[in-house]
């Protein structure tokens, strides 16, 4: 793994830098991407820094992408944030540049890039970007940069509720507050849902299947989304909802895509679930992962595997 100093030295060499993140971006993907882009623009105003990828409608208030042409990639430095593996990068031209850097906090199962910095102990990629800035004499943590990074950290820590939140995470957040970032406004914006999403939460509680072990799952199919007038992006936003139930410790949400397959969201308050995700074309953090199920039968199969995993965890008394 490379050091921050090595990464910054590489950044200094290039006049054009393209920053990418993963598909269907969450606040950490957008926050780390935009935070890094902003600090580089402020430190090196003569460099051309571009933000690539596709926008997420519900998160346009945080950051939007820019047009990146094929010509822009020629001779450029490409930096990918918050993306564990190459298929998930939200622009498959990522390898068309001159040099590729990976900055991430997921398990490093796909060690792509000419340089990489991966810290799985970090709460978020946004926290890593804050540390990168802190390590440098050229880069500065300004209020504008901190705005993006705070949103990213809040998103990946569940407003500092998840076990990934450390003393260092809180110290970094304190720096943002000291700079005058309106943390309350960001928290309120991220807590905001539409009426349709609120209705979906109610339906989800009604349809949630809870096993005696504490494993649970729910399916949000195309028919339900059409009935409620929501899209897949809005459906994905309720992934944390089952974790509010006392009876649930580990859960899956299956959101059907237009091609009939299911995007599987796995979350846990104890049992490690990224191994299960890897067995179904996915991966991620020990307590927060994603996977793909080709049909309803595979969804059911995954729930059986989840029940076994949770039961074994309970028997060990962990």
Which structural traits does this protein have?
6-stranded mixed sheet; alpha/beta; 40% helix; nucleic acid binding; inorganic pyrophosphatase (n-terminal core); globular; Diaminopimelate Epimerase, Chain A, domain 1; 318 residues; single chain
Explained architecture:
It holds the Pfam family DHH. Residues 16-153 form the DDH domain. The chain has 318 residues and is of the alpha/beta class. It has 2 domains: 4-190, inorganic pyrophosphatase (n-terminal core) (Alpha-Beta Complex), CATH 3.90.1640; 195-316, Diaminopimelate Epimerase, Chain A, domain 1, CATH 3.10.310.30. It has 12 helices and 11 strands. The strands form 2 sheets. It has a 6-stranded mixed sheet with strand order 6-7-8-9-11-10. A hairpin with a 5-residue loop joins strand 8 (250-256) and strand 9. Helix 5 packs across helix 7. The radius of gyration is 20 Å and the shape is globular. The model has no long low-confidence stretch (mean pLDDT 95).
Q: In a few lines, what is going on in this structure?
A:
40% of the residues lie in helices and 17% in strands. The chain is an alpha/beta fold. The two termini are 32 Å apart.
Low-confidence stretches: none
Task: For the largest sheet, list the strands in their spatial order.
Answer: 6-7-8-9-11-10
- Assembly type: single chain
Series of secondary-structure elements, N-terminal to C-terminal:
HEHEHEEEHHHHHEEHHEEHEEH
Helix-residue proportion? 40-55%
State the CATH architecture of the largest domain.
Alpha-Beta Complex
Annotated CATH homologous superfamily of the largest domain: inorganic pyrophosphatase (n-terminal core)
Could you tell me the strand content as a percent range?
15-25%
What would CATH call the class of the largest domain? Alpha Beta
Radius of gyration: 20 Å
At CATH level 3, the topology of the largest domain is inorganic pyrophosphatase (n-terminal core)
Globular, elongated, flat, extended or rod-shaped: what is the shape? globular
**N-to-C CA distance:** 32 Å
Q: pLDDT average, as an integer? A: 95
Structural class: alpha/beta
GO molecular function: nucleic acid binding
Domain DHHA1: 222-311
Pfam families: DHH, DHHA1
Protein name: Bifunctional oligoribonuclease/PAP phosphatase NrnA
């Amino acid at each position: 793994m490379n050091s921050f100093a090595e990464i910054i030295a590489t950044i200094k060499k290039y006049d054009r830098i393209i920053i990418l993140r993963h598909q269907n971006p969450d606040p950490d993907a957008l926050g780390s991407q935009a935070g890094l882009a902003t600090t580089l623009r402020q430190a090196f105003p003569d460099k051309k820094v571009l933000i690539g990828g596709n926008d997420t409608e519900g998160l346009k208030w945080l950051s939007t992408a820019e047009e990146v042409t094929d010509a822009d990639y020629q001779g450029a430095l490409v930096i990918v944030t918050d993306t564990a593996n190459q298929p998930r990068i939200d622009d498959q031209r990522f390898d068309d540049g001159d040099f590729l850097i990976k900055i991430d906090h997921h398990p490093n199962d796909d060690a792509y890039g000419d340089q990489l910095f991966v810290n799985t102990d970090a709460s978020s990629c946004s926290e890593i970007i804050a540390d990168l800035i802190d390590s440098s004499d050229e880069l500065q943590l300004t209020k504008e940069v901190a705005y993006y990074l705070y949103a990213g950290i809040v998103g990946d820590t569940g407003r500092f509720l998840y076990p990934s939140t450390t003393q260092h995470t809180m110290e970094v957040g304190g720096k943002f507050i000291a700079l005058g970032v309106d943390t309350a406004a960001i928290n309120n914006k991220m807590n905001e849902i539409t009426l349709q999403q609120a209705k979906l939460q109610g339906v989800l509680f009604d349809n949630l299947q809870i096993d005696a072990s504490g494993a649970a799952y729910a399916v949000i199919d195309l028919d339900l989304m059409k009935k409620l007038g929501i899209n897949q992006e809005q459906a994905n936003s309720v992934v944390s909802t089952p974790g509010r139930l006392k009876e649930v410790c580990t859960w899956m949400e299956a959101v059907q895509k237009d091609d009939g397959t299911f995007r599987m969201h796995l979350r846990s308050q104890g049992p490690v679930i990224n191994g299960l995700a890897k067995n179904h074309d996915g991966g991620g953090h020990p307590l927060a992962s994603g996977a793909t199920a080709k049909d309803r039968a595979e969804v059911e199969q995954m729930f059986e595997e989840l029940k076994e995993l949770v039961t074994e965890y309970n028997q060990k008394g962990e």
